[in-house]
Amino acid sequence: MSCASQTLTDRCDGSPTVTGALPGCATAGYRVRVNPAAEPGGASTGLSGQPGHAWFAGVRASRPVECVDLAQDAARLASGGFWVVVGEFDGPVRAWRFTRVDRSDAPGGSGPGSAAWGGPSASAWVSSLGRQAYCRGVGVIRERIRAGDVYQVNLCRVLEAPLAGTDGEPDARALGGRLARGNPSPYAGGIHVPLGPGLPPVWVVSASPELFLRVRDGRISSGPIKGTATVPEGLSEKDAAENIMITDMVRNDLQRVCEPGTVEVTSLLELQPHPGLVHLVSTVTGTLRGDRTDQVDWAAVLAATYPPASVSGAPKHTALQVIAELEPVQRGPYCGVVGWVDADAGRAELAVGIRTFWWTPDRGGVLCFGTGAGITWGSMAKQEWVETELKADRLVGLASSPV
Q: What is each CA distance from 192 to 56, 83, 84, 124, 327, in whole angstroms?
């Protein structure tokens, strides 16, 4: 369905607003409010819009003016605006508000940049867990399962390679364009707010295939992935059992914020193809509590669902303890959340932060990427290690190769 693209206009009272229609909507008239008090020279923040940009399917944003920690100030989103969310698996979940928002019907909107990406060499990547250490971790988890402590734990490792930025920081949009061409993904996107005064910096580029949370018209849905292979015939009974287990966890999580009796599994073990891989995906939906579909209690939603069930384990609390014991480095945005919240329309699309790169200025500049696998009693250590390689090879190759 065709909808009008959005452009920035000025209302008669002088306060800017974005007008147009959301992708997939039938009529125009959708507006992204801009709080004049938070604009350059305003009384709310005193911040001017600083350099920064973000992009997702059908939307591109620029000029960030504020950032909030959703664990402490989720109510700030109720004031409206377009927010880009990046949550760390083992750290804060933050939202940056952008005041320039452009939309189009084309997949990826205006899209990431087309500049050349100069990544690290393929041989420069090192892993936080080597093969032997990872396989030992699988054995530890299986023993914890035997003891009845957990049923499933997602065991991950972080790859990193030195990457010095040109003119300060690497071009996130250049990497986004390379991934879009070589590994198109339904929840691809990115955000880059450079290091500087005013706002916390962030540099994340994602090719996530997994929906964490979608909110629209008072409904919330999630699409957990469990089960990965190169071809459908490679998927096993273990994959199906693991998917059903995690789907039930997601159902339980959503029941904490949905109207009683509205949570349902609308699809189970759906086969979805992606570049070089196939996944088993299930979908869980429900009706959010509350009288207004444009007001979402994000503090309650995140408390009930975060971190995502598919990348933690069951039961979640104990699985997180096991992860902290076995993984030598924090995951950062990997296995966290990347996406956007349109607080004016009560809409959001948040992806699980898998197949995701992030850059840090530490040690002169480092590019990072995470990969992992879900461990159950039926897991074989060597096969789980191979799955982590399978998930990383294509994307790390794209990020490493010169354009």
A: 12, 13, 10, 24, 27
